[in-house]
Specification:
- Helices cover about 50% and strands about 10% of the residues.
- The protein is of the alpha+beta class.
- The protein has 3 domains: about 70 residues, no CATH class; about 90 residues, Arc Repressor Mutant, subunit A (Orthogonal Bundle), CATH 1.10.10; about 100 residues, no CATH class.
- Strands 1-2-3-4 form a 4-stranded antiparallel sheet.
- Helix 9 crosses helix 11.
- The chain is globular, with a radius of gyration of 21 Å.
- The two termini are about 25 Å apart.
């Protein structure tokens, strides 16, 4: 399984780390939202997270333990399925098939802070509920403790009762997914996913991110590279090339524009047309792009 282009921030999860990766097409067709892998010492767990009626649920777990001890009840209890779901929740925006623009690896910087709640009584609008949903997702992300309501009370500037009501309204309006009893956190609602997709796919956001990457990769003319990467993105959309490499699509487009002044797919096609073996040419292009990214520390 290939690494997710938009993995959650790395961090400890009950003496281990959780890694999220995108499902293969056949797994996605079965409803699998993502795969997960977790490890601590000699204990390893892998499996699937799928979309259920009440949000994301773990539907498959495979555990590998030291042969000298075998799998015991105590070892089973160490696998942090709650952390797995929280990490999956943060990456669900990436894996949602309706929001393909999010697989560029581009996110706005703290979008929840763009909206300021005025003092006093306020009208409960979609803008307010979107803000509440974004803050809620941020404050219930992996690595946060369970005092979500206390932090929301402070950030939103309202008493706990009002905050509870706003969160419930956000769920009912589709900005947050349904709550699951006994589980902290939430999944983004359909309305929030659609809004985020629109934000991520705007030319303004894309060109800014492409220019940032071009600068980081020491392009001679970052603006020209960004413009070329944007034209390639608009022309070719979600190429299969990045998903075969595990490199973020945004990085592939920008690096290819610098190295070849065309897309990685076009470069591959040209090399194959010139007589190169397709697999060898693919591996060589991946190595060249990876080397460029490594040199710049992108």
């Amino acid at each position: 399984m290939s690494p997710n282009q938009h993995s959650p921030d790395s961090g400890a999860a009950q003496s281990g780390s959780v890694q999220i990766s995108s499902p293969e097409p056949d797994a996605a067709a079965r409803g699998v939202a993502c795969h997960f892998a977790w490890g601590s010492g000699d204990l390893r767990a892998t499996g699937d997270v799928s979309r259920g009626e009440q949000g994301l649920v773990v539907t498959r777990v495979e555990i590998t333990a030291p042969s000298r001890a075998g799998i015991t009840h105590g070892l089973l209890r160490r696998v942090p399925l709650g952390d797995v779901l929280r990490f999956a929740n943060t990456s669900s925006m990436v894996n949602d098939p309706n929001i393909v623009a999010l697989t560029t690896g581009i996110r706005p910087a703290r979008p929840a802070d763009d909206y300021v709640i005025p003092p006093g009584r306020v009208l409960v609008t979609d803008e307010l509920l979107r803000h509440v949903a974004l803050v809620y997702l941020e404050e219930s992300a992996p690595g946060k403790d369970r005092a979500v309501l206390q932090r929301l009370e402070e950030r939103l500037g309202r008493p706990k009762g009002t905050v509870r009501g706003w969160v419930q309204r956000a769920r009912e309006a589709g900005w947050l997914g349904a709550a699951v009893q006994g589980r902290m956190g939430a999944e983004p609602g359909t309305k929030l996913l659609l809004w985020l997709g629109e934000q991520m796919n705007s030319d303004e956001v894309l060109i800014k991110e492409f220019a940032r990457l071009a600068t980081a990769l020491h392009a001679d003319d970052p603006a020209a590279v960004a413009a070329g990467a944007l034209r390639a993105w608009r022309s070719f959309g979600l190429s299969d090339f990045p998903h075969r490499t595990g490199i973020r699509p945004s990085e592939v487009y920008v690096a290819a524009e610098i190295l070849y002044e065309r897309t990685a797919d076009e470069e591959l096609a040209a090399r194959v047309a010139a007589g190169a073996d397709e697999d060898e040419a693919f591996d060589q292009i991946v190595a060249e792009i990876g080397e460029r990214l490594d040199q710049a520390g992108a």
